[in-house]
């Protein structure tokens, strides 16, 4: 990307007489939806610098003179695995006053659906606020109580709408806008590249795993998502955009995956151990919506190992999937015993039969199309059953919350094949690509 500064800031825009929304909409900031930029050709083979790396190199210039709070988790590290908060604390350049911990906690000691609570960080002595599941009102209360001027976000996302850190970012952005605080995003590469896939979230099915209208694999970095949220949603929900600064990565290309960036991988949650997991997750994460099947939690390959009880599922599933010759992926017959079942206790410590999803060409692999094929074939087994939640009588099917509507479930139940299911969202995906274009940085 051609730019004179490593900052994209609404404050800078104001100095030029522009509004936040005008900055987000500027044609000069538009980038292609897919593929490398012109500058990206020169960057090929160079290690990517994250927004944190760029911030540290500037000696935290954009944060000086402010009371700073940090929203992060163990992924917020530089190229030498040093955490953002620890770097700020020892730098002498930043007035660090608070940290905020999302799901799994600020230091990462909690499992899925858990947090570390509010307390004092042993290493730095600052107060860490428990932000897991916090509403926008709770966020506003924490921001006010902490007396910060600026909230800094640095968490590695994995590119899927139902991976909840992006919604923690969204709610904290709304709260920062309402309380008049500045918001800074330290950008990180999207580990699964910059292409978008999948169905759109629809308002009747919004929840903690999808709060606003974006597609299932959004194909954006967290910095780009913050710009999208700020331009598309905050004016209506918060009454105004937040004062947003994004510190972009250097040398990242939209056709680039985690393995080629040189950016350290720290597992962002207990069941996201490797970049391989992230590649399949926007698709196989949908198996959280199938009651009779496990997504491999409690194995060494969560979301890559998918199956059901060995008494109910068999090798015919892998044979039928392999016969489809899906691009960029192979399937291995697999037997495994999940030692963590999430919301499916009947599968805990039981022998399961299924497949291991092996991505052989990430550039050709479509994780959502692949998972739709897996669902279509799995639906043929008598034991197949969608997960239902008794606490939500109006919207009982979890798969509907994951995919954004009833459409995928009802089409598969009616016998639709893969092309029909995937084709049903082509128009909304094209519209999302058009809308997001102005907010892209790379």
Q: How would you describe this protein?
A:
It is a single chain. This protein is of the alpha/beta class and 442 residues long. It has 2 domains: 8-266 and 431-439, Rossmann fold (3-Layer(aba) Sandwich), CATH 3.40.50.12170; 275-405, Aspartate Aminotransferase, domain 1 (Alpha-Beta Complex). Helix content is 30%, strand content 15%. The chain contains 16 helices and 14 strands. It has helices at 10-15, 20-25, 38-43, 51-57, 84-91, 136-146, 165-179, 222-232, 234-237, 275-284, 316-323, 367-378, 398-403, 407-413, 418-423, 426-436, and strands spanning 8-9, 67-72, 95-101, 119-120, 127-130, 150-154, 182-186, 197-200, 215-217, 243-247, 293-294, 305-309, 329-336, 352-359. An 8-stranded mixed β-sheet has the order 1-10-7-6-2-3-5-4, with helices on both faces. It has a 4-stranded antiparallel β-sheet with strand order 11-12-14-13. Strand 4 (119-120) and strand 5 form a beta hairpin. Helix 6 packs across helix 7 (165-179) and helix 10 (275-284) crosses helix 12. The radius of gyration is 21 Å and the shape is globular. The N and C termini lie close together (6 Å). The relative contact order is 0.14. Residues 1-40 have low confidence and may be disordered.
